[in-house]
């Protein structure tokens, strides 16, 4: 059969760009419908996200969480597993971070607490993913169902633990005491100011760097190790995996452990980096948004970073937008985010055939 | 054919269809006179099935149009095709297995919200059809209890019931015994006498010669020739299919079998539903011989390969191999069997033998990915993998010799070469090889057969599973026939002929040759 090539940039750049463009056009219609000027709104959104140092800081701070959960989804997805439980794994991962900080912040310095908290996040997140993984690998319970249920269980468990055990005595607020400052992960603006670099005050902290390190780790793991080879084989062709003698149950379980551990790192950013206490609902839907980030980023670390920054910009710019134009409520901002997810995630292939066809015809002609 | 005043039953004009980067059909023109059997022949991947799917409304053509009885029709769905009088019998039957024949036939044409009226009308109509076309069948039988040949008859009835005057059969004999296939061709002849036009899609030259009036040849998405069957021959058709001269025999010397490399006793395997798929299969595999397993597809050959190679655990029995005794209680998985120097070319390279999303150099280490030669301390040694892949591609003439090309983008023959090279180059003691040339073009078949014989001559043991009798007879030194999960016959390749094997494959040998042991 005759073969014609579609240029690589079409799939990597042009199609995602068109999808986002379409999402913004439809968003513009929504804003028109409520009687506001979409151009003006877009201006506030972009300025809020990227226009000044603090805005960029916030954007990257949101992106940090989304990189963790996006990577979590992608590692599982490479093994053919749809991990919907990032939310619960992040929540329990935060518990791990919180317990380490609460236990050690009176006695230990940061350089001891930080590694232990990172391990705590990974171990707790992985443990929460282990049960659905085990049930899938050894008992055949579907991982989508079990991970969804485990999100609810995580949520209830955290309410119980915080309200009954970890709440600060004599206070009504459902959160733990604030950690001592030596259990706070340093903000990037604090780290950079001695070097004479001013990036403005924002919650952006060391967890962002950890997220980037995780990207490199995941990239190496998936594309350059034997385990990654087995994972990708299992994910694309389970029959071939059995033919190759790959222990599919073991690979499944490890994939979920790594996925859960990555999701757990959200706790580093939120609990140790920003809130400095253990509180309810700090995951705020990042686990679910991670699915969209991973989809849009084509399950590749670089794509995930870019998609996470886009979504982070929507969070941050959207908040700014809702502040500047009061008729655009936070709910409308959620609608815009939803449209981006719809067009770049669910409707990802809407233009694909037509655009590829166009380039093939052009290449043939 | 152009000055004909009688309109053709079906005529295709300049049909083209492209899937992404692949041009599956290119400017296809075809004229089929009414009341004839018209064969369409071509190798797997030549675009036959795509073309039929366009006629039957599964795909829409990018360009071109279809005329039925001289009138242009716009077929956008299978319902449009049915309305135009076109019926299709798919290679894999589209039947509801636990429904009766009658229920299957009315499916999609129930004729109302309540079933009773439609069923009664259908019963009368079916009796008429069965009489007219001599297609006897018990309309109340449950489909899954019928033999494959009869299931296919249900498919034909289904099409006729919907008023088909043009019947498309896609590789109809792939699942049939030679005897069942002969019966099918008799049915097609009687359909033709009743004025039905038949389009027969196949890659088997013998069937074309035996049953068609005209034949069209497809190659690489294009229609390359039209012939009247009586004015052509298999050699010419084979050349048209592949575009060069071909040789259909294998040169090999007498086998020199020596030590028993592998012996299996009473291998039995139950599937997850508890159905016995392998029934007490015993066999011995000797160094320096090719043992052929003949049988109609789905009679336990796949299960045998999977159990021998360690992919599925056996339920009962034992295997002696490389000084080890493997039983249900002491199993070995596929990786361990590989370590004992057993290689396996699986029957289905897409489902099992390759990861089509991988680049060639990655797929070329599947199953051997733990080997030290492909690994550094922590990371895989992609450089070594690439180097080796390049060498093998050159040695085995894999085209294009690009280790970075996605496996899916190689042709069937080249994919198969990647798999066979991977397994043979590990220098195994025992090679299990399933359907080595399925979907492989004739040029590559020769090459693959030569390699298998070369491996035998170097003192290795080879177990060959194939549904192509020609291949079994050409390659094997000894032949075992399987039916319904059991071994029903064994014979020396010298004594094998098509008729004997065909009867054994249908488990009819003993019945016909009373007293002859099988």
From TrEMBL, chain A:
Keyword Transferase on entry: no
Membrane topology: Multi-pass membrane protein
Location of this chain's protein in the cell: Cell inner membrane
Molecular function terms, GO-annotated: transmembrane transporter activity
GO cellular component: plasma membrane
Pfam families from the UniProt entry: BPD_transp_2
Annotated transmembrane regions: 12-35, 55-77, 89-106, 112-131, 143-163, 204-223, 251-272, 278-297, 304-326, 332-351
Protein keywords: Cell membrane, Membrane, Transmembrane, Transmembrane helix
Alphabetized InterPro entries for the sequence: ABC_transp_permease
Superkingdom of the organism of origin: Bacteria
Protein name (Swiss-Prot/TrEMBL): Nucleoside ABC transporter membrane protein
UniProtKB/TrEMBL annotation, chain B:
Membrane topology: Peripheral membrane protein
Entries under InterPro entries matching the protein: AAA+_ATPase, ABC_carbohydrate_import_ATPase, ABC_transporter-like_ATP-bd, ABC_transporter-like_CS, P-loop_NTPase
GO cellular component, one term: plasma membrane
Highest taxon above the source species: Bacteria
Location (main, coarse): membrane
Residue stretches making up the ABC transporter domain: 10-245, 262-509
Keyword Membrane on entry: yes
MF GO annotations: ATP binding; ATP hydrolysis activity
Subcellular locations according to the entry: Cell membrane
Alphabetical UniProt keywords: ATP-binding, Cell membrane, Membrane, Nucleotide-binding, Repeat, Sugar transport, Translocase, Transport
PANTHER family in the record: CARBOHYDRATE TRANSPORT ATP-BINDING PROTEIN MG119-RELATED, GUANOSINE IMPORT ATP-BINDING PROTEIN NUPO
Name the UniProt record assigns to this protein: Nucleoside ABC transporter ATP-binding protein
Gene source species: Marinomonas aquiplantarum
Lineage: Bacteria, Pseudomonadati, Pseudomonadota, Gammaproteobacteria, Oceanospirillales
